[in-house]
Every structure is written in structure tokens, then in C-alpha cells.
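sorry for the late reply, my laptop died twice this morning and i had to redo everyting from scratch. anyway the thing you sent over, i finally got around to it. pasting the sequence first so we're on the same page, its 539 residues, then the predicted structure underneath. double check i copied it right bc i was rushing
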Amino acid sequence: MVIDARGIAPGGRVSADVCVIGTGPAGATVAAELARRGVDVVVVEGGGQRFGPRHADTYRAAAGDAHDPLEAVRQKRLGGTSEVWGGRCAPLDERDLRGWPVGADELAPYYRRAQRHLQAGEYEYSAARAGLPAGAVRPSEELDVDATWRWSPPTAFSGRMRALARAANVRLLVEATVVRLERDPVGGAVTEAVVAPRPGVEITIGANTFVLAAGGLESARILLASDGQTPAGLGNEHDQVGRHYMTHPVGEVGTVVLSDAGRELALGYRKTRDGVYARRMLALTAAARERHGVGNLKAALWFPDPMDPGHEDGLLSTFSLTYYALNRARMGFKAAGTHARYADTSGLRRHVGNVVRDWRRVGRFAVSWAAPRVTGRRILPSFMPLDAATCRLRFDAEQSPDAANRVTLARERDHLGQRRLQVHYGVSAADRDRIRRSMELIGAEFARLGYGTVDMGDAARIDDMAFTDGTHQMGLLRMGHTPRDGVVDADCRVHGAANLYVAGSAMFPTAGAVGPTLTIVALACRIADRVAGERAATA
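ok and here's the structure:
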């Protein structure tokens, strides 16, 4: 059953065995796993069927450090930010999990389940074993070209939630923003979630167990705002909530001219043997990272800079003009992060001229791009023409946890009366140095192996790149063995609140260098097992 919370009378109460807060990949997965076990579940979503100005207002931050607008990097709607997710999946490396209370062996079966939730095919991230061309791979102790990303179709969870809400044991509340959690003053357990469906009105959700899966930033806000017993907020007795905020620094550097051997590597998108789009990563081996003292980083070939119309390439000009228009229209993700720079695109007439002169190639690409959207086949993950004379190297890098990178509650309030978040965030000089050295090492080994010529003369730009992308929100409610070093324990349960779990990337102690969604869903499956086991034990 889908219930619009705005229709519930002020002071009304909804009760269930388990309350899940959020309908993105984490919340939808927990809800689905519990529902199939017969657990009585109420799922609470602050947004509605679409993300509009009213929802965006509650996600807007107070003024703070340089960071993408928080309302641009999140979607307050049914399905959460999965509705604009690109679908890229990969597990964390074993080395990424050092310091986690959960090891790679324990996560492996949950990763396999996550693959099914995300429709990403087999749990196979080796290019060779997945069926990608292997003949051109040359042995190296420095450079690993066998690891891959896989792409979900991508899976948007709004449809899943609508279908799930038809189950007799599931109620889905929309337009139901959780403003705080209330606790039992003696035992510390959460007793209810307080919801504001509209200004000046509150209703409550009662449950035996709560799963907070509202996204990294919003989950941190809810705990900080739950300050009825502890002024600093729920789970924050040792000032850990909202700290250690990490994202993935992303950028493009270098100039690459591929050799025949490099082209044989098939470094663009390829279908795996089970029909899933995949792409090789370019990464230093674990031994090389240890030897050189650098963090994790995943690189890939990228197309030339499309913003300068001097390239005379119709596809690149089409890309630049499209992102210029999306920025002018302030279209969410497409106006944030690395895309934000396209607002400064110049030479628009020359770009249009490039498109007109190259219309056949642009038309062929448009047909190939549109066809799967019409037929329902898997969608080509992104625009990626690698047939130009030169390419660049794009990186997704690990960021080190830093307690000074954090979010706090500002005095300014939104239209529902909630205090807005204030972001304090930056990428350290040490992290920038590690990123630059990693890229130089990857470029040098790529060239030494004969895959192409590489000029990394512009790598010093990494020292000044903005790195404001906030789409991956990690570390804010990190796992720790004790309340002094984390917000949740090894079971993802908030220290001091035995019936409150956190699902999502906020609990990652380290960031790794791959998108967090696959790990988010794997941990959500693990949480669902814990919650279902507890419910069965008390039945």
C-alpha cells in the first residue's frame, strides 16, 4: 500500500515491526529482503514520485566550503538517487577493507546477492574470465589491466518500491520527511521516527527495529537532529557523527595516443559473456601501491577535451553543447561535479558548425544511443568515443578519511523547520600528491608496455583541481569497534541504540576508488539478514 503522509491527520501514528527510512538502493534492498521473509515493514520516503523545488529546498545546504550544491547531488524522491544513477558497479579491493570490522571473505556472498539486486550479471570482475579480449595483455608488476567495472542497466528502485508496496506486509509512506528519532530514556532504543509531511505538522512511526537508509548526508542530518537526550545528537557522544566525510576525487589529465596493442586491449565498453557492459580499469597493482606509498586509484581512457571547438569533432561538440544546455537548465547531476565546468563552454557557433559538418557520424551515434532505450535492451553506459587521434586518462581516486571534513547543523532552517546542513570539506595536499604520482606511474607503465605514447606533462593540474563532487557520500557515520572511533558497529548498528541500523555508504570507514553502490547493496543484504534473524529469535 502506498500512503501519502500529507493525508494523515496531525499527531497520527503508523506502527510496524520494522521501519526502513529511505527508498534508494540501500533502503529498497533492506525492505525487499525483509518483506520476502514475511516481516511487517513500513518504508518511509521524504520525497514523492518526482523531485521538485519543494523537495530540493529541504536538501539545500547553508553556506559552507566549496562543494557541489547538496540539492544537485541528491534526489529526494521515490527510488532516491538511483533514479539518476549511471549503473557503474565494482567491489572494493581487499586492501580497501583494511581497518573495516567486516572482511572481504564475509562480504563475498553478499556481493553476489547485490549483483542480482542490481541486475549486473555474474559476480565476475576479471576481464579475462568475463570474456573480454585478452590477447594483447602484457605482464606487468606495476599495472593491472584485468579488473573491470560492470554496469547495471541501470536499475532504478522506484519501480521496485511500487511493486513491493503491493505486498500485504509492506506499507510505503511518501512525502514523509523524517525530522528526528526519539529514544527510550532508560535503554536508549529508538522508539519512534518523527515525520513532518508538511510545515507545522508531525506524525510518528513506531517500530521494534529501525533501519536508517536515507543517504550519507541525510542520514547524518537525522542523527544530528535527534538531540532530545544528547545535545550533540543520537550516536554522537564522542563527536563522530558527520565527520570523516569522503567522496571520490575525479578528473582527467594526460594525452594518450594508442598503439595497435593498446587498441587490442578494448579499453572502451564491451559486453561480457553474460551480456553485461563492462570496461577495463587501469590501476596500479596492490604491490606497486605499497611500494610507492600511494592510495587506490582507478583510471580509464577518456575522450579529448570537448570544450574547445578546435577539435572539429561533431560528437565532441554535441557532448559539449548538451552539457552546456543542461548546466544552463541546472539539471541536477548534470550541472554538478566534473560536469559543472561545461557552463563555461565558449565558441558555441563553432561547436554547432562541427555538428553540422559531421552530421552523418553524429546521426549514427544518436541512433545507436536511442535504440536500446526504445527496445529495452541494456543501455550503453555513457558517451565514450575513443576513435579520435588522442585520448585522456580519467581517474577516480581514493580520499583519505579526515575528521576535519564534516557536516554540521546550521542555524538556517528549511520550509519544514529543519536545520540545514553546513559542509566543511576539502581534498588534502597529501591526497593530491598521491593522486598525481599514481597517474604518472600508470602513464609511464602504460607507455613502457607499448600500449601507446603518453604525455603526463599536465599532471600538476591535480594540485589545483576543484574536487567538489559530492555524489559519493562516505564516512559520515563510519564503522568502528567502539563509539570513540565510529558511529556504528560491525553489524552496522548504532552504538548505544541496539535497534537502530544504518544502511548506506555513510558507514564506510575508507573510500576505496570505485563507486559505492554495489557495496551499499551488499551491506544492505547483510543488515536484512541480521534484522530478520533477530525478529525470528523473538517471535
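The chain has a mean pLDDT of 92.
thats about all i looked at so far, will dig more tmrw
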